[in-house]
């Protein structure tokens, strides 16, 4: 997966630590577990043609979290690009 440019990005994480830099958008959602006005961060990822081919063939998408404590996460699919 390639890091995408998320519309309305509010900051970039990790660049000062030597990573490529991950643009993200800070949001507030109504979460059924954590309640109304739960803060969250949203990033965009773009699969390569090879990854798309593998996903269409049934390959899973993995989420890798660095460290030993796993925060709550959500995976969703955004809208297809126009044009």
How is this fold's topology laid out?
Blueprint: E1 2-3, E2 11-13, E3 22-31, E4 35-42, E5 45-46, H1 49-56
Antiparallel strand pairs: 1-5, 2-3, 3-4
Structure explained in plain terms:
With 83 residues, the chain is mainly β. It has one helix spanning 49-56; strands spanning 2-3, 11-13, 22-31, 35-42, 45-46. The protein has a three-stranded antiparallel sheet, with no helix packed on it. Strand 2 (11-13) and strand 3 (22-31) form a beta hairpin. 0% of the residues are buried. The model has no long low-confidence stretch (mean pLDDT 93).
Instruction: Give the spatial strand order of the biggest sheet.
Output: 2-3-4
Q: What is the global morphology?
A: globular
The fraction of residues assigned to DSSP E strands is 25-35%
Mean pLDDT: 93
> How many DSSP helices?
1
End-to-end CA span: 21 Å
Low-confidence stretches: none
Radius of gyration: 15 Å
